[in-house]
Amino acid sequence: MTERSPGTAHPVLVTLAPILEKTGGRLVDPEKATADDIPVVWEGETLACVRFGAPEPDPLAGLDKILDEVATELGGPLTELPRADKQRAVRLLEERGAFTFRKSAETVAAALGVTRFTVYNYLNRERA
Predict the structure, then answer these.
(1) Which stretches of 1-128 are assigned E, i.e. beta strand?
(2) So which domain of life are we looking at (predicted)?
(3) Domain membership flag for residue 2
(4) Separation CA 96–CA 99 (nearest Å)
(5) How many whole angstroms from its chain centre is CA 54?
(6) Residue 119's CB: how many other CB atoms inside 10 A?
(7) Is the distance from CB of 119 to CB of 92 less than 8 angstroms?
């Protein structure tokens, strides 16, 4: 096996990249391959596997979308909102299911520029 510096791809994988982009395929780590993936073997070494189909969902992408929608609705970056609007943002986020995501309180807290404890306080206030 030829030693490569970190971040550089094997020339075979570089060659495949535009083909996969056009055909909806993507490269996956051989250790994460499934039975449906196609191994890319070069000189006896499995460099990667090709997977076709829908990309794996990013679990936080849905939360980011909800955060963006609420920020747009409230007229600006969530970190710049006054306290009352941040409380309203938390209420809207809860209504839209933002807190069903794993580690959502931390993500929402960072987006609002408050602590996780503050987010929980806002949630408890709304629920009371």
Answers:
(1) 25-28, 38-42, 45-52
(2) Bacteria
(3) no
(4) 8
(5) 15
(6) 26
(7) no
- Domain ranges, residue 113: 61-127
* DSSP state string for 108-126: HHHHHTS-HHHHHHHHHHH
Coil/strand/helix, residue 48: strand
The model's pLDDT over 81-127, given as tens digits with 9 standing for 90+, comes to 999 999 999 999 999 999 988 889 999 999 999 999 999 999 998 77
Note the pLDDT tens digit of each residue in 44-90: 999 999 999 866 656 667 899 999 999 999 999 999 999 999 999 99
- Residues 48, 104, single domain; the answer is no
**Angstrom distance (rounded) from CA 61 to CA 98:** 11
Pairing relation of β-strands 25-28 and 38-42? unpaired
